[in-house]
Design brief:
Elements lengths: L1 H26 L17 E7 L6 H9 L6 E7 L6 H7 L5 E5 L9 H12 L4 E5 L3 E2 L4 H12 L3 E5 L1 E2 L5 H4 L4 H8 L11 E5 H4 L15 H11 L3 E5 L7 E2 L3 H15 L4 H22 L5 H25 L4 H7 L1 H21 L3 E2 L2 E2 L6 E2 L2 E2 L3
Parallel strand pairs: 1-2, 1-4, 2-3, 6-9, 7-10
Antiparallel strand pairs: 4-8, 5-10, 6-8, 11-12, 13-14
Length: 379
């Protein structure tokens, strides 16, 4: 009887998962018509990159930015007290026009990356500011296309969920489902946002209501900004496509560290949210457990197979939208292992926050304030 009850819950949850996945992957597709005009009054764009111990990927990232066909770019890279050769790599691109910014000592009340964002904003001059992670990859047209989307949509901020572009590596096949979780949990009032690539109007992020000071202690500042702008109809979130060309090649250990830092905040930074997420992961894993149980009737086995197939299809839909080549097939095959991995990471994130051991690039993440100026910080 318990097997049937849990399988019923799994079936209902799987149906909702599949429905939500189909809706989200369609809703967040780029439907903007490409501009055919050559606008001579294009806004200037400041590409801002915060780097801390990033020598493994920095050169590749900078080369991709420099290859952009956008005509009005300035590129700034801040070295946030790196302990490796990151500063030397940045300076080696000086002749190509990349500006080196030395990070200052981190003041109280700030997380390192957020303070780097604020410093880069102060040092830049573009009408639009583009923040990208070092692990982000771009096509020649990426910046031009996103500028086009922002202007034609008449919004103040665009963020793009990147595609996996690192082939058949473990970082791609066994990468975390963080972006999938954010996509599923996103709502109209609390939309998803991607830290890997987001563009915002300078006039917006410099205003009193949206300044980085309001998000100084948030582990997801771009998400808070997106939330406020969404209420005003001035935010757009998109899944990357071949036309947009935004990807990422984050190493597997870095993905695990990011998951530990973000999973507990993603579910609301509450014990109730963590418990609900934990139960849901167990519910989605139950059909696979049933298939391994002895002495189960044929009808129950078929039911479990259909339910597990629904979970496979849900992940396949998301994977085809976010993975290159045929990686999505391999990744979908490993769905049960990915669910177990996410369940473990969710527990680790909760424990790390409870013990106060969450880190970001080697720095302890302090507890978030409940209210800070114009914004209620709930993550």
């Amino acid at each position: 009887m318990l097997i049937i009850l849990l399988l019923s819950l799994s079936s209902i949850a799987t149906f909702l998962l599949l429905t939500r996945t189909v809706w989200a992957t369609r809703y967040y597709k780029d439907k903007t018509v490409k501009s055919s005009s050559q606008n001579q009054n294009l806004p200037t764009v400041s590409v801002c990159i915060a780097a801390r111990n990033e020598m493994h990927a920095l050169a590749h990232c900078l080369e991709a930015v420099l290859a952009s066909d956008y005509p009005k770019l300035e590129i700034l890279v801040l070295d946030d007290s790196s302990e490796d050769n990151t500063p030397l790599i940045i300076k080696s691109f000086a002749q190509a026009g990349i500006r080196f910014i030395a990070g200052s000592a981190l003041p109280d009340g700030w997380l390192g990356k957020n303070h780097a964002y604020q410093t880069l904003l102060a040092e830049s001059s573009g009408e639009l500011v583009l923040y990208i992670d070092v692990d982000t990859t771009l096509s020649v047209r990426s910046i031009s296309r996103v500028v086009d989307i922002l202007l034609s949509s008449n919004v103040d901020m665009v963020s793009v969920l990147p595609q996996r572009t690192d082939g058949y590596r473990s970082s791609s096949i066994f990468g975390t489902l963080r972006y999938y979780l954010e996509l599923l949990l996103g709502t109209h009032a609390k939309p998803p946002a991607a830290s890997a690539f987001w563009m915002v109007r300078r006039s917006t992020v410099e205003s009193v209501d949206f300044t980085f000071k309001n998000y100084a202690l948030s582990v997801r500042p771009e998400r808070h900004l997106a939330k406020q702008l969404q209420h005003l109809g001035r935010y757009k979130y998109l899944l990357s496509t071949t036309g947009i060309g935004v990807g990422y090649e984050k190493q597997i250990h870095s993905q695990y560290e990011t998951a530990q830092r973000l999973y507990y905040p993603i579910v609301g930074r509450s014990i109730a949210g963590w418990l609900i997420a934990t139960v849901l992961f167990l519910v989605f894993l139950w059909p696979y457990v049933v298939l391994l149980l002895p002495s189960v009737s044929t009808e129950v086995v078929m039911w479990a197979l259909v339910t597990s197939l629904g979970i496979f299809v849900s992940l396949a839909i998301f994977n085809t939208a976010t993975c290159g080549r045929h990686v999505w097939v391999i990744r979908t095959v490993f769905t049960p292992l990915l669910l177990i991995q996410e369940l473990i990471l969710m527990q680790v994130s909760f424990v790390q926050y409870v013990l106060g051991r969450v880190t970001w690039k080697g720095r302890i993440v302090t507890a978030n304030v409940k209210r800070h100026e114009a914004l209620t910080i709930d993550e």
